[in-house]
Design a protein that fits this description.
This protein is mainly beta and about 350 residues long. The chain contains 2 helices and 20 strands. Strands 1, 5, 6, 9, 10, 12, 14, 15, 17 and 19 form a 10-stranded mixed sheet that branches.
Length: about 350
């Protein structure tokens, strides 16, 4: 459920014959995670001659080189060049055709939005390889500029689209009141909460008070309900888009009357022994649920999670996995100047 700050994270006590619910502890230590804004990164956006000044009616090719610097595969990759078509249309030059809407498509078939795009593999640390790189290009004829008019400025920009994911996993420690007391008396320590996170443009974090303490009656196993808070942050400098039905090309258009920009699709996997509370059950579905990002930047949700089958026989750890799916868009721009023929 969105707008988590409107929820009371402490009014979560539930009771049954077998259970007395959790008494929250402190936020547990978690193995260090250093977030990085991985994904597609533009290495170069330039002209084929590495120049910024051209003459009227001169062939010119724009090239963008980019690389997958994240830790998951980029899918449905395609690119568009903006800011020139209205004035530069429609000389038949280069391999890229003009569409009916007078838009110049890239020279490379795979880079065109009219297809399904292409995939780019991430770096492989074990093999010591970088992420896959690619190049898209557009060839134009500069417009007819009247004689002796120098330095007419143009500001082309390239826009990259790709589908990406963020995956965050955290272990949570559960211990009975008696177990925790025994560990304390013996000078021991609980297992450290661990977390793993992909390098992606959308950052996910999960906060929980841990260890989660419980105690049971003499009748048997215990169960406990506890709150988790999930934070979502756009750290990639671009725009994330999603609808519940589609990710691919969701940034290009409104789909089914639903505005897709500044949204991600979030899925919460709590495993077979845990159950999401009613307010967050949609996030546990196969497709997850859509979350809006406030001003395109961030949001947070709070969910109750119930775990059962806990026994008074030592601490246990269970995993919660978060997965965000989205289309991501980044822009890069330049300035060139065109001078009329002498």
């Amino acid at each position: 459920m969105l707008d988590s700050h409107h929820l009371n994270r402490h009014a979560l006590l539930l009771f049954s014959v077998l259970v007395v619910i959790v008494v929250s502890g402190c936020i547990s230590p978690i193995s260090p995670i250093t977030p990085s804004a991985g994904g597609l990164s533009v290495e170069s956006f330039t002209t084929d001659l590495q120049l910024s000044e051209f003459y009227s009616e001169e062939p010119i090719t724009f090239q963008i080189k980019f690389r997958n610097t994240g830790s998951v595969k980029a899918e449905n990759v395609f690119a568009e060049l903006l800011g020139l078509d209205e004035d530069w249309c429609c000389d038949d030059i280069g391999k890229g055709p003009w569409t009916g809407g007078k838009e110049k498509l890239p020279n490379e078939d795979k880079c065109r939005y009219t297809g399904d795009g292409f995939t780019m593999d991430p770096p492989n640390p074990e093999m010591g390889t970088q992420g896959e790189s690619a190049v898209c290009s557009w060839t134009y004829m500069t417009p007819d500029i009247p004689k002796n008019i120098p330095n007419v400025p143009y500001h082309p920009s390239v826009r990259l689209f790709y589908s990406y994911k963020t995956i965050f996993q955290r272990t949570i420690t559960f211990g009975s009141h008696q177990d925790l007391r025994n560990i304390q008396d013996l000078g021991g320590s609980l297992p450290v909460s661990t977390g793993t996170l992909t390098s992606s443009p959308i950052l996910l974090t999960l906060d929980v008070n841990s260890p989660v303490r419980f105690w049971t009656t003499s009748t048997g196993n215990g169960e406990v309900t506890f709150p988790i808070e999930i934070s979502i942050e756009n750290i990639g400098g671009g725009v994330a888009c999603a609808t519940k039905s589609s990710i691919h090309k969701s940034c290009k258009s409104t789909q089914g009357g639903q505005e897709a920009k500044n949204k991600i699709r979030l899925k919460i996997n709590v495993g077979p022994d845990l159950m999401l509370g009613e307010e967050c059950q949609e996030f546990g579905s196969v497709d997850g649920n859509v979350v809006s990002l406030w001003k395109g930047k961030s949001n947070a949700i709070t969910c109750d999670v119930k775990v059962s089958g806990l026994m008074n026989t030592g601490s246990v750890q269970k995993k919660i996995t978060l997965e965000a799916a989205y289309e991501y868009v980044i822009d890069s721009d330049m300035e060139i100047k065109v001078t009329g023929k002498n």
